[in-house]
DNA sequence: GTGAAAGCGCTAACAC
DNA sequence: GTGTTAGCGCTTTCAC
């Protein structure tokens, strides 16, 4: 099944390849008649441009690398959908890698992507700081890097797509307070994740404002899995910390926590209300449905793709930060 | 940040590009000394092969298209992980598309993939039959097509990776029977999905064998979402069909069903046991954890990639069916 | 053991 | 308005 090339069309129509090319590209310097003949023949013979040849010509690989911490929750999938929506129509392909919340794997992934000659990398960090050297090196080499959700520390000037972690956390905690909860525990995730610290800050600020802050209510976890969420609650109980609600760093941690509560016959939200930050479909899949700060994941993906395209078009484009609005969605777990 | 090419090395070492190329490829016809010089220089200058050029030369796009019905559950993500494990080391990139359980979108996706000049397509169907013409056409054009999980009807001879839907369903239903359940409802999913019919067959066979088959216990759904699972149970209740357990076509339908039960204060598994078929992480995320037929998703992805590589290497390779073992995992929802 | 040259499919100066 | 030519980065005959 040999593919039809411009050469084939050229022979078929007894025209030079350049004329064919021009006709196909809607170049003005082509007789209307000729263009029509070319287009018809292309259609008839089933001509399709060879993207590889185009890429070689343009010096691009038309491949974007993606690094995400995990793909178990629909978080990354949703963002990817946005990225794909933006990039597929432009002929970009993807190499999607997962770091499994492990900086070492993240490093390997980035190196893999370099081997792929990617035109750029869109990344959601697993932990801050560990690989800052590599991020910088990649950018220095001229490969655009765009961050979303979990971003590196302020020491690195980068393009990024985020929501305001601190403010949205404050809003969610304030909502819990307004519903009458006073002992709000916070499962904050690993302290090496920048957003975890930000969200904890938002939590602290509002708890302090209402004069109900208690250091003991905060518990950080080693990792981001459901198991870590469970453990966190278990620890709170073991330490005999009293709490009437939980605000968790992520859907995953929250659901882990919920499961532990349910296993121990603690009613949600009767005994303990639960709220989280993420906004994945998981929050409406579990029972009771989970109140959560909903991030506009698909739009975030589209925005990240947009920043990437900017950088690809003009490598000297300034780094930009896109701050997206999140939405508090109230569900059964707090009502 | 100009990339180093073979030409650069050639100038740098005053050697012809062909010698550089040979040295890099470990061709025997190169002086050992020369090879070492080349390798050193390549390392020093940071040479990396241009994959696009390689691809143009070899006539491949080194891109594999993927079509999956959805990415909300971790099902596809797991399979993808297997595919990626197998294909990334070989330099393949992916274009992953979602059909949203919609044959029309599936069609568009396939056409998009053709435009990408993919070397092959790995696909998990949304509904059988609708696009058989297109599958055939794609294969006729010489683009290898490998199916997994949801496959087309027998009329199409294709390479595929599956588990035995019928037998595993029988086993799961028999397990429910052995735990004392007699009124086992089956939420079977849309009848246009081949696997749904297969799994229903497995269900029927074993129910009949034990003389407890009742047509009323089977309910098919319009779609595959959580909502459809809910609706199914609701209908069973409305029809006043008595049941002490549910066997669902997928985790998603099962979880939707579970949520409806819980919302109506029906105890799981006390009043109604629930089991499903899929084997995604979702089954251990929900509460109570869900008994399920666990498919070896990652391995299935690897197998599919393997079949694809076979076809790419030798387009006349015969179609093969890889039948994988599934595992029944018993969790709280049936204990 | 090494070099020169052609060619993968396409576009874009540069002619005419 | 159309054709000729060179070249993107690489491999691979074909010479020597």
UniProtKB/TrEMBL annotation, chains A, B:
**Coiled-coil region list:** none
Molecular function per GO: DNA binding
* CDD domains named among the record's database cross-references: HTH_LacI, PBP1_LacI_sugar_binding-like
Tell me which residues make up the HTH lacI-type domain: 4-58
Entry keyword Signal = no
Pfam families registered for this protein in UniProt:
LacI (PF00356), Peripla_BP_1 (PF00532)
Q: SMART domains given for it?
A: HTH_LACI
Q: Which InterPro entries match?
A: HTH_LacI (IPR000843), Lambda_DNA-bd_dom_sf (IPR010982), Peripla_BP/Lac1_sug-bd_dom (IPR001761), Peripla_BP_I (IPR028082)
What keywords appear on the UniProt entry? DNA-binding, Transcription, Transcription regulation
PANTHER family in the record: HTH-TYPE TRANSCRIPTIONAL REGULATOR GALS, LACI-RELATED TRANSCRIPTIONAL REPRESSOR
* Name under which the protein is recorded: LacI family DNA-binding transcriptional regulator
- Species this chain originates from: Chryseobacterium endalhagicum
């Amino acid at each position: 099944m040999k593919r039809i090339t411009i050469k084939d069309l050229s022979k078929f129509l007894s025209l030079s390849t350049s004329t064919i090319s021009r006709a196909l590209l809607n170049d003005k310097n082509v007789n209307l008649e000729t263009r029509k003949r070319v287009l018809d023949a292309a259609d008839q013979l089933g001509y399709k441009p060879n993207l590889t040849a185009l890429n070689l010509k343009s010096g691009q690989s038309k491949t974007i690398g993606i690094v995400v911490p995990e793909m178990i929750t629909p978080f990354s999938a949703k963002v990817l959908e946005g990225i794909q929506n933006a990039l597929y129509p432009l002929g970009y392909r993807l190499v999607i890698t997962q770091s499994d919340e492990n900086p070492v794997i993240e490093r390997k992934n980035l190196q893999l992507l370099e081997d792929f000659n990617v035109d750029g990398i869109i990344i959601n960090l697993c932990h801050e700081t560990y690989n800052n050297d590599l991020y910088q090196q990649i950018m220095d080499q001229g490969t655009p890097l765009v961050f979303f959700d979990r971003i590196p520390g302020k020491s690195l000037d980068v393009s990024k797509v985020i929501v305001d972690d601190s403010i949205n956390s404050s809003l969610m905690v304030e909502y819990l307070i307004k519903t009458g909860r006073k002992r709000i525990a916070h499962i904050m995730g690993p302290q090496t994740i920048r957003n975890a610290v930000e969200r904890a800050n938002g939590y602290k600020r509002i708890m302090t404002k209402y004069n109900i802050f208690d250091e003991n209510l905060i518990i950080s976890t080693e990792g981001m899995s459901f198991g870590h969420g469970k453990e966190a609650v278990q620890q709170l109980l073991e330490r005999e910390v009293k709490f009437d609600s939980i605000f968790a760093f992520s859907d995953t941690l929250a659901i882990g926590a919920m499961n532990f509560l349910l296993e121990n016959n603690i009613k949600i939200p009767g005994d303990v209300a639960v709220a989280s930050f993420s906004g994945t479909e998981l929050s409406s899949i579990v029972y009771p449905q989970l109140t959560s700060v909903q991030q506009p994941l698909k739009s975030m993906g589209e925005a990240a793709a947009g920043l990437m395209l900017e950088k690809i078009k003009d490598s000297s484009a300034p780094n930009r930060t896109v701050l997206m609005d999140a939405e508090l969605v109230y569900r059964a777990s707090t009502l």
